[in-house]
Amino acid sequence: ANYLRAWVDRAERVGNLNYPDEARRQQLQNGRTLSLLLTTGIKRDGSLASVDIIQSSGFKLLDEAAIRIVRLAAPFPPLPANMNYDELYITRTWEFQPGDVLKTR
Question: What is the rounded CA–CA span in Å between residue 12 and residue 70?
Fold first, then answer.
């Protein structure tokens, strides 16, 4: 649970610092939240194994921005020793919210 919370904090921090300028200019949100579902694969050493859009936001710009944000946030801390996995997959809903805010849930 602690690893996931730290991952979410990092992804949101990097995402809010690197919110896509083009989305701001185009005002894609138009006062609404746009969501996508993304899975991130993390190797035992914290390096990125994969990033996959499971369900698109409907806007290629936002989908690509989410992938870019994950890549910018990598590498992640190594997986805890008590996790007996070679890779950890984290699937989260990414919300691009009005006011140029990124949240995951």
Answer: 10
